[in-house]
Each structure stands twice: as structure tokens, then as C-alpha cells.
Amino acid sequence: MNTTWKDDTVTLARSVNAVRFDAEKARADFPALHQDVHGQRLVYLDSAASTQKPQVVIDTLSEFYSRQYSNVHRGVHHLSQIATDLYEGARSTVRSFLNARHDEEIVFVRGTTEAINLVAQTFGRSEIGPGDEVIVSEMEHHANIVPWQMICQEKGAQLRVIPIDANGDLQLDHFEEMITPRTKIVAVTHVSNALGTVNPVREIIRIAHAYNVPVLLDGAQSSQHLPIDVQELDCDFFTLSGHKIYGPTGIGVLYGKRELLERMPPYQGGGDMILSVTFEKTTYNEIPYKFEAGTPNIAGAIGLAAALKYFRGFDIDALVAHEKELLDYATGRLEDIDALRMIGTARERASSLSFTLCAVHPHDIGTILDKQGIAIRAGHHCAQPVMQKFGIPATARASFAMYNTREDVDRLVEGIKQVLEVFT
Ligand code: PLP
User: Fold this and answer.
1) CA-wise closest residue to 38 among 416, 409, 374, 364
2) What is the structure's pLDDT at 424?
3) Is 382 assigned a catalytic role?
């Protein structure tokens, strides 16, 4: 059963009573997890960077390239029609996954980065002028900072930043004061990749809409951990990356409300995004094709649809409960390590744990853990302003997905103890 996401806190609480999620059963679906690395069973704790792929996604891609492959749209032959049906069917699958109202509100892009650049370069180019303002938060991934900085610089507009507190929670009381008649868009992450913070996005959207300001939610870290309903959220734009939700790389989604997408100028020019071309004048295609110039990532979209169908085959309450239980267990075990400093202790968190370990550089933590077959990520996680906020250059980050278990956490804890032994 899939539930509708009402409120992040309510769902996280309700998930406690959900049926038990069988992580071992899910694990069995992911061939990459069944291998040894440096002589030990692989423990994959880097899913916030990219998730592993279930067999059904691999098989779908293989079947598409083996028997169904052709370019899409305008083809009169059999294979082109099959490929077109699969590609447009994938769009419907995404629409249903996000509970968008219309298929045309789903634009296929390369990933969240391209989705945000698209909005900045089209909505931004047409709606932002000198002296206008764009609001982001201090915990954004660079993908939700730099595209806005670029358009603000070009237009003489100003980027304003909602601060975070020492726990990694947004200081929401500052937010409403920041909105002015010059605010053109608010762009915030739903879940932080560097801190794991789950933002109070309904409140942000409610406040912004009270001033008629549209809101873009960066869903790169939320779509695989929380139920998403764009109508219920009432966000104006939502983005996701296929590779972070068990799908292929190079494919992602921009959801936009129809009236906004229709108003926006095209992104890139080329084939498919036009209705007619002469040297004097081009007439653009309708949405979503207006934003999909050139041959799209056909296989990627079809693979993404397979991933979303796979994901929706699980009880979402049970999945949320499983990941929350794992995060709580890992938090408790890591907090027992004296030398460890947790970076990000927000009220609501999902999926990721960032930490530092005395003076050990996070890259050394990552390298020593790797020698034990444990994959984590070390660095600034493309969120340098977050690192600056906490006065550190980098963190080590362990991130969880449906296939992780308590045993993985125990291996991580033992691994960290070995790191400490090396450095003391
Ligand atoms: N936003 C957030 C919060 C992310 O975590 C990421 C990737 O880690 C991105 C945006 C960029 O996603 P992609 O590299 O798939 O475009």
C-alpha cells in the first residue's frame, strides 16, 4: 500500500507502527551488493551519492537495448512506435509516482542539476530582473546555489539565504521577513544531502504562497526516502535524479505546474522542441517537448520507470520506518564513540549521517573503511557553505537506503574503531 504524504513529522511518527520492512529481501534484488571488496562483504553506505540498481532495472535496460530500441517520436516503423510508447509510458509512471495532475508537467532532464538550471535559465531569464531577489537556504547543494547565482549575476538580482542553526535546522522565523515584493522564487532542498535535515517544506510553501512567490523543491534526497505528492505539497517545481532512486544515471525529472511551464521560454533549441522552423521564425512545441530538445535519454527514462515501479512495490510506511530505525540505531552507536562529532542533529533527519573524527581527515576515514569493504563518502558533498557554517573542510558521510541493515551499521562502527586505532 502506498500512502499519501501529509506531513513529514506525522509520517515519520506513523511509520513506527508500519509493517516490518524486509531489508534482506530487498538486498537480494541488488546484484552489486553481493560481492566482496578487499576480501570482505561489501557494505554500501553511499546511497546519497547514488543508489545501487535492482535486477529489474538492469533487465529492463537490457531488454530495451536488445529488442525494443529505436529513436522516439515521428517514427512510423514498429520499433520506433514501441520505443515511443515506452518513453511516454515512463512519463506517465513518473506523473503517477509524484501524483502530478498532467503528464505534460513531467519534463525529462539529466538529473536534478539540469532541472534546476532549466528553471533558472527559463523561468529565471524571463521573470527575474534588476533588483529582484531569489531565496535559497544555507544548506543547499551547489546545484541549487550556482544556477541561481549565475542568473542573479546576469540580471543584477540578489541571492538571499535562509540561515541554519547549529543543529542544521532552518531558521524559519527569518524566512518570512526575507520575502519582499521583489522575491521571484524560493528554491530549497527537501532533504539536505550534507546534514540529512528534513525541511518543513509545507510551511515554507505556505508562507511563500501567501506572498504569491513560487517554490522549487530540490527532491534529489527526498524522493527515495519519503512519499512525494506534488499536488498535496503544492510546490511549483520539484526535481529528482533517477540514479538516486534506484534508476539509471543521466536521467532525472523536472515537475512544474502546467501554467508555469507554459509561460516559460524554452531551454535549449533543436529537434523535437519545435512545431515549425523557417530561417525567419521558429514556433515552439507544446510542453513538455518544448523543454526536451534533441534525442532524449530514452533508455534512461524507461529504466527510471522500472525503478519507480519497483520502489512503489514496497509499503512506503514500512520503508520509511526501516530507514528511520536504521538512522536512529546508527546515530546511537556512533554517538557512543567519544572521538566522533556528528555534523547535523536536526529535529527531523532522513538517510544520511555526517561526522568528523578528531583530527583524522575524512578522506583517510573513507580510505581505511574502504580497505574493510565499507563504502562511504568523504568531502564537502557539494555543499561548501554547510562546511563553512560548521567550520570544517569536509565530513565523512554514511548514507542508507532500503537495502541496508543493522549489520551494515555494526560493520561501520567496527570500521571506525579501526580507523581510530590507526591514528592513536
Ligand atoms: N541536490 C541535492 C540535495 C543532491 O544531493 C544532489 C546530488 O547529490 C543534487 C542536487 C545534484 O544531483 P545530480 O548530481 O543527480 O544532478
Assistant:
1) 374
2) 82
3) yes
